Amino acid sequence: MGMEHYCRADEIELRSIAGEHFLIVLHAGESRMFSLNGMGLWFWQQLARPVTKHDLLSAMSAEYDVAEAVAATEIDRFLADMIGKGLAKQAEGGPGL
Fold this sequence. Notes:
38% of the residues lie in helices and 24% in strands. By secondary structure, the protein is an alpha+beta fold. The chain has one domain (6-90): Arc Repressor Mutant, subunit A (Orthogonal Bundle), CATH 1.10.10. The strands form two sheets. It has a three-stranded antiparallel beta sheet. It has a two-stranded antiparallel ribbon with strand order 1-5. The longest helix is centred in the last third of the chain and has 17 residues, at 68-84. The two termini are 21 Å apart. The mean pLDDT is 90.
C-alpha cells in the first residue's frame, strides 16, 4: 500500500440527526448532504488526521474480523468514492500537517 496520506476535505461537517449520520458540504454556493452507514462513519472518524492506507488497514484489522485482502479492497473503494465526491483529499504532508 502507498505511503500517501489522506484526510477529510475542508468545509465538511458531520451531523447526527435522529440516529443517522450525515456529511454536510459547507462550500459557498453548494448544498450537498451524504448519509453514512456504520462503516462510512468509521472511515470518516479515521480521516480526522492524515492517515495512510496502511494506517487504515492496521486500524480495520484491529477492530474487525476481516481478511487483509478484503479490507485493502474496501479501503481503496472508500477512498476513491470519498475523493470523487470531494469529501476527502490526499494530504499535502504527513501527520504533522
